[in-house]
UniProtKB/TrEMBL annotation:
Similarity comment: family membership: Belongs to the ABC transporter superfamily.
Keywords: ATP-binding, Nucleotide-binding, Translocase, Transport
Family matches, as Pfam families: ABC_tran
Zinc among keywords: no
Protein name, UniProt field: ABC transporter ATP-binding protein
CDD domains: ABC_MJ0796_LolCDE_FtsE (cd03255)
Domain ABC transporter: start-end pairs: 6-228
Length: 228
C-alpha cells in the first residue's frame, strides 16, 4: 500500500492583520501518497506558493498540522524543522539555480557530498538520476552548455539527489516551450514512480496538469479536487 508521505490537516495561513489581512488557507487538507504526482492548479494569488512553502516547512501555518513521512511538524522547533526538511524534502524552482562553474554531474553530487556521502557514492547516485531523467550524456556539461529542458532535468536530479520522500515543484516548466515542458514533466513523473516519492507540482499549464495522477485547486482557502 502506498503511504501518505505528505499530509496537511486543517491548515490555516493568513498574512498581515486588520485591513491588510489576507486569508490564504483556511482548513486546507491534502494528502499526497508515495509515488503519487499531484498537480496544483489555481489562479495567481490563490496561494500555490504558500501551500508549497508550508509543505516544504519553509513557513509555518497559524494552525493545523503538517505531517511529513509520519512526523507531525507542529511541535518541532526551528532546528527540528530544518533537519526534517533537509532529509525529506526536495525543491524544484522555475529557474534552475544550478551552479554555473560546475558540471551537471557535480551539481547533482554536491548536495550528497554536503550530506556526508563519499565522492564515489555521490557520483554513482548522480549518474543513476541523470539516466532516469534522460540526461546522462550531458553529465560533464556545464549549465551554460545545456538546453533549458536539460538544465531543468539536472535541477530535478539535484532536488532528488538525497532521496527526498517529498518533491515540491513551483512552476518547474514555467520557462520552457510546450514540447520541452512535456519532456521535463514526463521525466519528473518517471522519477517519482521509480523512486516512490510524493510530488506536489504547482503549474499554470493545464495540459501538463492532466498528466498528473490527480489535480487539486484552491477555493475559498480549501484544497479541492479539480477536473480540467
Ligand atoms: N509574506 C507575505 N505577506 C503578505 N501577503 C502575502 C505574503 N506572501 C503571500 N502573500 C499573499 O498571499 C496570497 C497568496 O500568495 P501566493 O504567492 O501563495 O499565491 P500564488 O498562487 O503562488 O500566486 P502566483 O501564481 O502569482 O505565484 C497573495 O494574495 C499574496 O499577496
Amino acid at each position: 500500500m502506498n503511504e501518505a508521505h505528505l499530509v496537511l490537516r486543517d491548515v490555516h495561513r493568513h498574512y498581515g492583520e486588520g485591513d491588510k489581512l489576507v486569508r490564504v488557507l483556511e482548513a486546507a487538507n491534502l494528502t499526497v501518497l508515495s509515488g503519487e504526482l499531484v498537480a496544483l492548479v489555481a489562479p495567481s494569488g490563490a496561494g500555490k506558493s504558500t501551500l508549497l512553502h508550508l509543505s516544504g516547512l519553509l513557513e509555518s501555518p497559524q494552525s493545523g498540522e503538517i505531517e511529513i513521512i509520519g512526523t507531525k511538524t507542529s511541535k518541532l522547533g526551528d532546528r527540528g524543522r530544518t533537519q526534517l526538511r533537509r532529509s525529506t524534502v526536495g525543491y524544484v524552482y522555475q529557474f534552475h539555480h544550478l551552479l554555473p562553474e560546475f558540471t551537471a554531474l557535480e551539481n547533482v553530487s554536491m548536495p550528497q557530498l554536503i550530506a556526508g556521502k563519499s565522492q564515489q557514492e555521490a557520483d554513482i547516485r548522480s549518474l543513476e538520476l541523470l539516466e532516469i531523467l534522460g540526461v546522462a550524456p550531458r553529465a560533464s556539461h556545464r549549465p551554460a552548455e545545456l538546453s533549458g529542458g536539460e538544465q531543468q532535468r539536472i535541477a530535478i536530479a539535484r532536488a532528488a539527489a538525497n532521496r527526498p520522500r517529498v518533491i515540491l515543484a513551483d512552476e518547474p516548466t514555467g520557462n520552457l516551450d510546450p514540447e520541452t515542458s512535456d519532456l521535463v514533466f514526463e521525466a519528473l513523473k518517471t522519477l517519482i514512480k521509480e523512486e516512490g516519492a510524493a510530488a506536489l507540482i504547482a503549474t499554470h499549464n493545464h495540459d501538463l496538469a492532466r498528466r498528473a495522477d490527480r489535480i487539486v485547486t484552491l477555493k475559498g482557502g480549501l484544497v479541492v479536487d479539480h477536473d480540467l
